[in-house]
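Appendix B.2, paired examples.
Example (i):
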Amino acid sequence: MEPSSLIGGLSARLHRVSDDPYHHAAGLLQALAQVPDPRDPRGRIHPLPSLLAVAVSAVAAGQRSVSAIGEWAADLPVPVLARLQVARDRFTSAYLVPDASTIGRVLARVDADALDTAISRWLISRTAVTPAAARRAIAVDGKTLRGSGRPGGQVHLLAALDQHTGTVLAQTGVDGKTNEITRFQPLLDGLDLTGAVITADALHTQREHARWLTETKHAAYLFTAKKNQPRLYRQLKALPWAKIPVQDETSSHGHGRRDIRALQAVTCLGPLAIDFPHASQALRIRRRRYNQATGRWSTVTVYAITSLNAAQARPADLADWLRGHWLIEALHHIRDVTFGEDASQVRTGNAPQAMAALRNTVISLLRLTGVTNIAKALRHNSRNPDRPLQLLGIT
């Protein structure tokens, strides 16, 4: 099994996709036209949407670097160049294929947050939550692009992912003067979160986030709690878990190990009340893992808090959302292993974030078509330049 397939099993359980694999993909060039062009109007040869479309098409064909994007573009046949709306010589009408240096300069100067926003809106408009999904679950997590600079100067990104579709709904940069916590609300502010449940790790288990989600965005939260919130952690740990029955238990096998997860939930009322905004249920998840290589069992205990009451979320739902949160970790794994993101030495300007946006786009579109093995799909696309354009809906 290839590394890029680890997201498949849970993703398949959480969503269904359309029978038409390209139903969602029309209008990418129009969406890219919403990104501001950073170049001086004088001397422009290539339209910005065309340059960006060439870049994302190359990434959909498995190209990992700016140099590889330029080489891929240089080999494109004329019909493909026409569909990508590549500029033409005014005298000879020959297509002027953008080279790697041109593409690299544009990616370095483009407003990467605007690019992320334009692409995310385009994906959202073509993504429907199926009737099988009772409540939309959105995972929030950050990632450092390790090859983007020296320690302390690396690009760090915060993203939101729809657990049901595997689609990246939003991404924003986290500059060195702040941290993920301050970028949580800006990341989600442009999304309609009404009725959704937001899952996040302990870093984002913040009182301000809980109030903002419930009171302003009319959403729910499901946060894990660790010792970075010592008072909350102590309260959760002190609940009478020995008297609370296990309400959901699941097991899984793979990668030389067996996992058994048991979830307990209790309503936060009266003597069991938790001092955290809108806290409705407290959770304890105990994961027992058997390692076949060592022949030993290990146990990990995780506490969580949610604003959803027992009538709004069954124990099985809570367990699915907690496990589904790791789909965003799987996204990061795919970008690292299949696209070589951490090994990438792209460092100039906004290019690291722009390249991450292109990778997110390709992964999201492949997920929407039901693909579970990204590496295999990229190899398939690489053998025919029409296939990436089909995926992107460029006709």
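Example (ii):
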Amino acid sequence: MLEGLTSEAIIERGKNVVMNTYGRLPMTMVKGDGAWVWDSDGKQYLDFVTGLAVNSLGHSHPAIVRAIEEQAKEILHTSNIYWIPNQVALAERLVKHSFADKVFFCNSGAEANEAAFKLARKYARKNYGEHKYEVISLENSFHGRTLATLTLTGQTKYQEGFDPLPVGVTYAALNDIEGLRAKIGDNTAAVFVEPIQGEGGVIPASIEFLQAARELCDQHGALLIFDEVQCGVGRTGKLFAYESSGVVPDIMTLAKALGGGVPIGAMLATNKVAKAFQPGDHASTFGGNPLATAAGCAVLDVMLADGFFEGVRERAAYFQQGLERLAQKYQTGGPVRGQGFIVGWPVSKLGPEIVEACLKNGLLINCVGGKILRFLPPLTVEKQEMDKALGILDEILSKIW
């Protein structure tokens, strides 16, 4: 397990055997506790990336650890040719607290979006005919790395070199109601929307745009699909991001925070839509296995406890106000944006340099598009930890801005 090796030694060995698909930072994480992580050299960091919005209850949360330990002693995996009690329990929680009636479990956000793509096309074909297969996605979106979800992703830089892509996908601009109206038609099977574009730079969809998307989908017999892989499961200060808009989708996809660090994805749908899938139409060997769903149940039990989200919203407002003060102090560009603890700070320049300086000073953040600092702290982060992060940013900007 490579215990006792330095970060440098682990990285050099990794370069020999691990495919070069990530621009990795030169560090190796080996321990986490709450909002903190440690590398193999013993250096401590305040983690405001949380595994890209995965560890939303922080690292090594007692409820998640306990659920994993107890389940590991019983059974880890059976496959979906049998009923899985934990899977039923997690699905019941998700259905009870959302618009949905049915849940399909998988292992990641890309798989959840792939399932949604397939369900939308199957539903459209069964109910309208072969002509209705087109899907509208949004420019600047991100939906995954499979060939279908790469096609849904409205950023050409991710698609380069993978042609030919699946046919039938077009793109409209986020928050451009007339642009969406011009794209949608009788051949449209579905419209994919991230309520907040995370990889696109933390850009929220306006309530007016979401309302218009719902109305247009209804007019044309198309399904409205919300990708809440990054912004869902508590990240916005509510269990699901769609709750803030009042706009209800037909399908919603989840992953990241749902397992608290254990890989799991989910596609939720209404009964009307879900019944388009029958045995053999879609599957996932590991999807919703006993271990992953035990962790998922623990995550939701913590989040659904009285007062949890009120505390998240209070702390998130405190943090955003602190960032806004710094943005005004240094005149960094556009306003801080986002909702809850998915926050983007446009810095117009020096984004990668700020991230690197934060790393050296013990704070983990990341940058999207070279110009947007993205903050995804644990929902359980404490005020003194936010103050420390803000202090590090203030000190860095005072030197390099």
